[in-house]
TrEMBL record:
One of its GO terms (cellular component) is membrane. Keywords: Glycosidase, Hydrolase, Signal. GO terms for molecular function: beta-N-acetylhexosaminidase activity. It comes from Algibacter lectus. It holds the Pfam family Glyco_hydro_20b. This is beta-N-acetylhexosaminidase. PROSITE patterns: PROKAR_LIPOPROTEIN (PS51257). Its EC number is 3.2.1.52. The active site is at 338 (proton donor).
Length: 546
């Protein structure tokens, strides 16, 4: 009893003597994106100082280290992580939290506690905490004391799949940028990175059994200049410069390990049967004509697709065997989009298979092709995900559908009780222009997807019943890079649209409020700047463009 009184007295005395205990915080101190499920504003602030220590159980060592680095950088002080000392920042697991990625965050003047059902939940709590920290000191604004406003937050995501894609084939991006991209995703509580690794214009992943995929398939002789829709016009121009790049398997391992520490699953995409000109250039026997092609040097869809031969299946199974050894993801993306059937129409081999298998047409042949790949991947404990064209000719039994040509494919698949990821062009194509006025915009593929348009998106179509809506795993935005040549431009195309998408996939649709989001977004852009991120500033000025 005596002890309890003494402790209580000590707390009161320290609260009274601590100038941070009773600070009244402003609402503006709590601008968080994506918006948490619930947030209480409290009195007091937690000061980061030389006595601050982070403690976490062994299972949360990664999160402890991550937070230690983050806080040390921001405060300019060493904020250590210790498994032994009882610190005043505590990371904990709690089985009773319902959502696998859910967390609670409590900040008072003398204690921060982040509790997650899993380490992922704790990691998201850390991301929220990072947005509560006032911006780091800059040369012109030297902060001597960094303090965090008191709060009590309970939060969990709406969707289990929160994805961003990056095409590294049309233009190649180095490992250092891929890691930065992963950090941008993590900051927004996104949990999936769809890595588009193979294309007509370049094969970007080392496959040991087929070295020509990279020695030949990763390099195009030159690249079309200007907009791709000029390619069949007489005045088409090419730049005359070889372009290439690929990731070694060591690079891939490094990126996968990095993503894991940020709770991001990487889904690799190996395109088939179309978008495979680079592979067919490296190994012409995989094509339908045996012709020696060249790696694609213009954009758009190419007629060359894999032959449905046993040799191709052997090749693809070998490639996928190496791919799944590198990527722990349950889902493997097998493309399936934009595969013109002209070459199969003209191929004796393809027509013989159609007859032999009793297939109706080339669409059913594509379905046969994809089912075989699915069977192989299922036998290795993996599932396929493919663009919505995989519905044509019959959907493979366990496939997840990525609906990009609007939501129609996704709706159809959900009604068939297949999992779906929504990525309709109108809301989720971040290679589109961000504003209607294109005078000051870098060249883009076309279309128009404003931040507000992204923010307005609801991935759950009204056409589906509540039961059917359960098959919608979430949404993803795609970043096709025909016209995006540098990391800075990727950032420009992605920010702030990704920030809007993060709220679409994390927060409740019912509480969405565009004006409130804009206020928080403007606040977050200061953080982009502090982190050295390039973003489309003017896109914020255009408030109600559709
Ligand atoms: C796609 O945009 N071709 C999936």
């Amino acid at each position: 009893m005596k002890n309890t009184l003494l402790i209580a007295l000590c707390i009161i005395v320290s609260a009274c003597s601590n100038k941070y205990a009773k600070v009244i915080n402003a609402e503006a101190d709590y601008h968080i994106i994506p918006k948490p499920t619930s947030l209480k504003i409290s009195e007091g602030r937690f000061l980061l100082d030389k006595n601050t220590v982070i403690t976490a159980e062994t299972a949360l060592e990664n999160e402890g280290q991550y937070l230690s680095e983050m806080l040390s950088t921001i405060s300019g002080k060493s904020i250590p992580f210790s498994k032994e000392t009882q610190g005043n920042i505590l990371l904990k697991l709690d089985e009773t939290i319902e959502n696998n990625e859910g967390y609670t965050l409590s900040v008072s003047y003398n204690q921060i506690t982040i509790t997650g059902k899993t380490s992922a939940g704790v990691f998201y709590g850390i991301q929220t905490l990072s947005q509560l920290i006032p911006l780091p000191a800059t040369a012109s604004n030297t902060q001597t004391e960094v303090s965090i406003p008191a709060t009590s937050i309970v939060d969990s995501p709406k969707f289990v799949y929160r994805g961003m894609h990056l095409d590294v084939a049309r233009h190649f991006f180095p490992v250092s940028f891929v890691k930065k991209y992963i950090d941008i995703l993590a900051m927004h509580k996104m949990n999936t990175f769809h890595w588009h690794l193979t294309e007509d214009q370049g094969w970007r992943i080392e496959i040991k059994k087929y070295p020509k995929l990279t020695s030949i398939g990763s390099i195009r002789k030159e690249t079309i200049v200007g907009h791709g829709n000029t390619w069949n016009k007489p005045d088409v121009k090419y730049d005359g410069k070889p372009y290439g790049g690929f990731y070694t398997q060591e690079d891939i391992k490094e990126v996968v390990a990095y993503a894991e520490t940020r709770h991001i699953t990487i889904i690799p995409e190996i395109e088939l049967p179309g978008h495979s000109l680079a592979a067919i250039t490296a190994y012409p026997e995989l094509g339908n004509t045996g012709e020696q092609y060249e790696v694609g040097k213009r954009w758009g869809v190419f007629p060359e697709i894999y032959a449905p031969s046993e040799e191709t299946f052997k090749f693809l199974e070998d490639v996928l065997t190496e791919v799944i050894a590198l990527f722990p993801s349950k889902l493997i993306h097998i493309g399936g989009d934009e595969a013109p059937k002209k070459q199969w129409e003209a191929s004796k081999l393809a027509q013989d298979i159609i007859k032999r298998e009793g297939l109706k047409d080339e669409h059913e042949l594509q379905s046969y092709f994809i089912r075989r790949i699915e069977k192989f991947l299922n036998s290795k404990g993996r599932n396929i995900i493919g663009w919505d064209e995989i519905l044509e000719g019959g959907l493979a039994p366990n496939a997840t559908v990525m609906s990009w040509r609007g939501e129609k494919g996704g709706i159809q698949a959900a009604k068939m009780h297949h999992n779906v990821v929504m990525t309709p062009t109108r809301f989720c194509y971040f290679d589109f222009y961000q504003t209607k006025d294109r005078t000051n915009e870098p060249l883009a593929i076309g279309g128009n997807t404003s931040v507000e348009q992204v923010y307005s998106y609801n991935p759950l179509p009204k056409e589906l019943t509540k039961e059917e809506q359960k098959y919608i795993l979430g949404a993803q935005a795609n970043v096709w890079t025909e016209y995006i040549k540098t990391p800075e431009q990727v950032e420009y195309m992605v920010l702030p649209r990704l920030t809007a998408l993060s709220e679409v996939v994390w927060s409740s649709y019912e509480t969405k409020d565009w004006n409130d989001f804009q206020t928080r977004l403007i606040h977050l852009t200061k953080r982009y700047e502090a982190l050295g991120l390039n973003y489309a500033k003017h896109s914020l000025e255009i408030k109600t463009e559709k």
